[in-house]
Amino acid sequence: MRQYMRIKLFGLAVLMAVAIAGCDTASQDVEPVVSPDGYPTATFAPTTKTCNEGDTIYFTITTDKPIDRSITFTFKQKGGTADSDDYTAFPAVLLPYTKSVDMMIITWQDFDYAATETVQGEIGAYSIADRYLLNPLTVNPTPVTFTMNNYVGELTVDFYWDKDITLGEDTYSTSNNVDFDIWYADVEGFDPDDVWATAIDWAAATGSHPESFSFEGLEDGSYYFIANVFSNAFAGSGANTTIPITSVFNRQGTALVDYELTQAEEDALDSEQPGYDEDGSDVNMILFKVTIANGKYTIFDVDNTNLGTYKKSSSGKTPRLVLNK
Fold first, then answer.
1. Domain boundary residue among 100, 120, 149?
2. Can you give the three-state secondary structure of 123-164, one letter per residue?
3. For the chain, what is the total number of helices (H) and then of strands (E)?
4. Residues 56, 61, 62, 67: what is their CA dihedral angle, to the nearest 10 degrees?
């Protein structure tokens, strides 16, 4: 009986030893549910980029193999001199069974005239689900940098003449009741007694307020910009005031931002003066002079005072000069 018991106990001990050994082997040989070797490795190119403000740039994300799931990559800024108002970065979604996708970043033109602006950031798959779908060999996120060269636009000018005039108990705006047409003439050969002799074209004659003009395409030279009174509903009203024009200059990418040049009272339109539409009067007032040379604009007031360089009346039924509008 004792021998039988010893054999039984010995057998039980052997079984336990085998079981323990089996447990040790399982713990040492455990494998992940899915091997990372089955997931794609992503690369990003280029990692540096240079563009002009207003350009659209792309960073290409490429994987070494397709999978049956989508992966979303996004951009995060980490430093640089630009901010999020200077560009818009769109998420890039790598679709199932594809191996590449472009991340699009639109850069915006602004009025900051710094020479260049830089953005230091990174592109990556940030969500837990997206990170899990990439091979650990992927540098996620990957640092990228892009530089935006300053955009310099064309010189523009807007013409305003809004003023409230009270007649009796009512108040009227000149912006709705007076219409100026703006034209320009060559300074060379200009004759104050025959202002139309060197006329070139209408700059702004749409019947709107304000009127606007861009200097884009205007050749090097010097030009007078002149206001012609097309209509004045206050003529003969007894308002006895003046209606000055304010010219507002801008050149994007330079220090010229909302620079205002307003007519002096003695140069402004007399509210009693009729315009061409009333009785054929040909009333013209020089507002300013602009000289263009190699992409630089120099503005002079009516008294020929240099205001800065910025880099990029008769009555009767006289026929009105017909220019190309």
1. 149
2. EECCCHHHHHCCCCCCCCCEEEEEEEECCCCCEEEEEECCCE
3. 4, 23
4. -120
Pairing of strands 306-310, 296-300: antiparallel
Distance between CA 122 and CA 203 in Å, rounded?
Answer: 47
Residues 153-168 have pLDDT tens digits of 789 999 999 999 999 9
| Residue 322 resides in a domain | no
Q: Which residues pair with 247 in a beta bridge?
A: 159, 261
Q: Do 287 and 181 form a contact (C-beta atoms < 8 A)?
A: no
Query: Tokens 């007694």 — which residue?
Result: 193
Q: How far apart are CA 236 and CA 116, in angstroms?
A: 56
From the CB of residue 142, how many other CB atoms can be counted at a distance below 10 Å? Answer: 18
pTM score, whole prediction: 0.63
Residues in the chain: 325
194, 145: one domain: no
Q: For residue 311, what pLDDT band results from cuts at 50, 70 and 90?
A: low
CA distance 64 to 76: 24
Q: Per residue in 276-285, pLDDT tens?
A: 999 999 999 9
d(CA 162, CA 173): 6
The residue behind tokens 């620079």 is: 259
Q: What is the pLDDT of residues 110-120, one digit of tens each?
A: 766 666 899 99
Give CA torsion, residues 58, 62, 67, 69, to 10 deg.
-30
Q: What percent of the chain has pLDDT over 90?
A: 69
Question: Is residue 323 included in any domain, yes or no?
Answer: no
